[in-house]
Amino acid sequence: MKKLITAVTTTLACLTALGGSGQAQAAEQGFYVGGDIGRSSNNLKSPTKPAVSTDKTATSWGLYGGYQFNKYFATELGVTRLGSTHIGTGESTSTSYSLDAIGRLPLNDKFAFYGRLGAAHNERSYSGFDKNHAVGFKTGLGMEYALDKNWALRTELTRFNNMPTQSTYGNASNVLSMGVNYHF
């Protein structure tokens, strides 16, 4: 996780240095699609003492599509595969389907901070068991950098709440991700 945070920070620093040299203005209205990859972290704990090994982090990826109404507001539909985590020999795989409202704060023609609040249908399957389902809130904070009027880069920290629980698998997942989107 520390390596991913360092990579995101370095990328943003480089983009900030380049930010004043060009005039790429992000699209202010219209449809967009995108994808991201990141690292998920789940709240797990060992059910026994001494503790069995736990693997709380996993590679995550997501796909999304949305509509930007103006430079301050957008809505998004997305699916995020939160990866697989392990407690001892047990495995859990999580996926989330979401509908979000995006509030944006443009800093200039290239950079914008954004926040998200949405509803997510969360699924978690366990080795040897059926899938469990739950509905919860999805929240996030991120930054977007416009490469030109169509392409933009994103980095985001997202929290998925009310994940299905079983035994020692907790009810929240956090994801730090980087992605790209295309405005039509």
Automatic annotation (TrEMBL):
Keyword check for Signal: yes
Pfam family, one: OMP_b-brl
Location of this chain's protein in the cell: Cell outer membrane
First-listed, main subcellular location of the protein, grouped into a coarse class: membrane
The keyword Ligase appears for this protein: no
Span of the signal peptide: 1-26
Name used for this protein in its record: Outer membrane beta-barrel protein
Keyword annotations from UniProtKB, A to Z: Signal
Organism: Roseateles albus
Domain Outer membrane protein beta-barrel intervals: 11-184
